[in-house]
Amino acid sequence: MKKHRMYYIRQSAAALTILLSAALCGCSSDKGVNGQVIVYNWGEYIDPETLLMFEEEYGIKVIYDEFETNESMYPKVESGAVAYDIACPSDYMISRMIQNGMLSEINYGNIPNAKKNIGAQYFEQSRGFDPENKYAIPYCWGTVGILYNRTMVEEPITCWEQLWDEKYADNILMQDSVRDAFMVAEKLNGHSMNTLDPAELEAAKNLLIEQKPLVQAYVVDQVRDKMIGGEAAIGVIYSGEAIYTQKENPDLVYVIPEEGTNVWIDSWVILKNAPNKENAEKFINFMCREDIALMNFEYITYSTPNVAARELIEEEEIKNSEIAFPDLSQYGNLETYVYLGEDGDYLYNELWKEVKAY
Amino acid sequence: MKSKNKWLSAPYILWSAVFIIVPLGMILYYGLTDQTGSFTLDNITAIASAGHAKALRVSLLLSLVSTLVCFLLAYPLAMILAGVQVKRHNFIILVFILPMWMNFLLRTLAWQTLLEKNGVINHVLSFLHLPALRIINTPAAIILGMVYNFLPFMVLPLYNALSKIDTNVINAARDLGANHVYTFIRIILPLSIPGIISGITMVFIPALTTFVISSLLGGGKLLLIGDVIEQEFTRTSNWHLGSGLSMILMVFILINMVLSAIFDKDGEGSML
User: Fold this and answer.
1) Do A9 and B235 touch (CB under 8 A)?
2) Contact criterion met (CB < 8 Å) for A218 and B238
3) How many domains does one find in chain A?
4) CB-closest option in B35, B103, B237 to A75
5) One domain for residues A197 and A257
6) pLDDT given at position A5
7) How many domains does the structure of chain B reveal?
8) Is B105 among the domain residues?
9) Rounded to a whole number, what is the distance in Å from the CA of B63 to chain A's nearest CA?
10) Residues near B8 by beta carbon (within 8 Å), at least 6 away in sequence
11) What mean pLDDT comes out for the span A233-261?
12) pLDDT tens digit sequence for B115-147
């Protein structure tokens, strides 16, 4: 569920990359000695150094492309305009892709690092969207919580309810994405964040409309820079961004709200029609290697499910960080998104538009 | 000779066929079908739903206001530009167009940094003990962003129209006893109408369809019709609804184009 930064600009860069790579695919001189692999990942979700290392070690050319949201990734993969080998979607989008037969089963024999390094609990958790662990190998995970600036609030923030406190009018940053925004309201109402019950959805919508005058802005990844700059007192943020923001501004505190929240996992999947399946397996295996996973963790600061990599973290403070590696058993009411189906998505989007247009 | 010249337009015709006609056809196809591919008008009538209608109303209002502001700012400037000596005006126009060499998004992001609560402008104001400026995440910030980004599109057609006015006509008016104001109202303004219409078209259309400015400077609190369409494509992957709503916007654009075709027979806008 990683959020890219400055995405409009990078989006155009990504488009260029695709054009270039499409133009270059034709000539074999561009491929590595052992062919190529085409990877589709979230923006700024990998240490670029690791891609170079992979190319050097395996002689496989990596064509790397980035997406901004699960929803923008899906139609591109579905249309097959670019024949991607690997993608890195989030939980609910993986279940949608499984349902539509877009993924290829993982051959764990060719990816030994997966079972060796990645914690069993993360595979366990993945069963919510991939019941037999057949398709997805966890890459990053995290929670959605509240980041607040302790110099700008009167008491510690502990729950979603405080995002409706009039004291903090014009000081609240909400997520500008339908599922994350509704999650906050649904959790506050004590409902499931995967609900399709019309009455519960209506209640969530009304709550969000009630909150709108207090909200300074609906943002996606700008929440990072705005919180670092002290633009707002409270923001809804992904845990992976929280570590980075705290390094930049020590006054910031991240909490998992009392009412419960979303626990998400982004995972590597191999696409059904992957033209370079063997290279894709090598790539995922490489990404699961502890030293590579560590490099990626240090670069993007999103929690890694790679237990072996966590062992290698030198800074004790980070290794035992409550933000990066929270003990989920002590929080109640945690959930993972599930795919709601086309009608469910439509319903949520219509309600969200009503909130935004209000 | 004539048939030989025709061939030279082949690359352009091919280009417009592939990148203009085909995408337009696809928008029409998506706009008039539903997920199963059967014909429907639902995507177009969806504009009547409360959220969409309000987004369209807000978009129309904001783009009208910003077009008006652009016009009021650009007209005097274009008159000054048209009046200065040839040697210097190239330089002034360059200064004016220079920001356009930078990416439009970067410039809009820069405004965000300037206008923020703890932004550059407020730092300067608080240093001078002046009250803080609070327009970020309001409609005013969106209008500011629109005016800033689209002003050159108003200035250039106006400048073109004004600089084409024969000075003898103006001199004749003055000789016949018209004062400055009267000369302006009866001579300069009517002769610059093609430029005014082009300028309005070139500001109004991008302002009506923009989505970046509203999300960066408006804090996502004001939903414009451009935002709705963008989200239908990138987030909700409902290309059918997005295309249907785009077709509604095209109606406004067509009206605008018909107006400019009537008034702008010399094609002042094409000077850009």
Assistant:
1) no
2) no
3) 2
4) B237
5) yes
6) 42
7) 1
8) yes
9) 17
10) none
11) 94
12) 998 889 999 999 999 998 889 999 999 999 999
Q: Do A275 and A184 fall within a single domain?
A: no
Cα separation, A78 vs B262, whole angstroms: 45
Tokens describing residue B254: 């067509």
- What is the pLDDT at residue A330? 86
Using an 8 Å CB-CB cutoff, list chain B residues near A9: 103, 105-106
Q: Which residue of B has its CA nearest to A217?
A: B219
Query: What's the CA gap between B134 and A83, in Å, rounded?
Result: 48
Return the DSSP state at B177. Answer: T
Is residue A276 in some structural domain? yes
Give pLDDT tens digits for B165-187. 988 999 999 999 999 899 999 99
Residue A328's pLDDT is: 87
Instruction: Give yes or no: residues A206 and A281 share one domain.
Output: no
Q: Which residue has the tokens 């969207």?
A: A129
Residues ≥6 apart with Cβ < 8 Å to B172: none
- Same domain for A95 and A233: no
Q: Tens digits of per-residue pLDDT, B194-244?
A: 899 999 999 999 999 999 899 899 998 999 999 999 988 888 878 899 999
**Under an 8 A CB cutoff, do A356 and B103 touch?**
no
Interface of A with B in 213-252 (CB under 8 A): 215-219, 226, 229-231
- pLDDT bucket at B94, cuts 50 / 70 / 90: confident
Same domain, yes or no: A182 and A47: no
pLDDT above 90 as % of chain B:
60
- Cβ pair B43, B244 in contact under 8 A: yes
Identify the pLDDT of residue A82.
Answer: 86
Average pLDDT over chain B reads 88
Comparison of pLDDT for B40 and A11, the residue scoring more? B40
B219 and A218 within 8 Å at the Cβ level: the answer is: yes
Interface contact B220-A356, CB threshold 8 A: yes
The CATH number given to whatever domain includes residue A107 is 3.40.190.10
Side chain identity at B177, as an amino acid letter? G
pLDDT of residue A310: 94
Which residues are CB-neighbours of B225 under 8 A, at least 6 positions away?
B52, B55, B56, B58, B59, B208, B209, B245, B248, B249
CATH number of the domain where residue B246 is located? 1.10.3720.10
Do residues A299 and A220 both lie within one domain?
no
Dihedrals phi, psi of A262, to nearest 5 degrees? -95, 130
CB contact under 8 A, B235 and A349: yes
Q: Which domain holds residue B191?
A: 49-271
The answer to whether position A2 is within a domain reads: no
Give pLDDT, residue B266: 57
**Apex A164 CA angle, A193 and A355, nearest 5:** 60
> A221 and A336 share a domain?
yes
Among chain B residues, the shortest Cα distance to A72 is held by B234
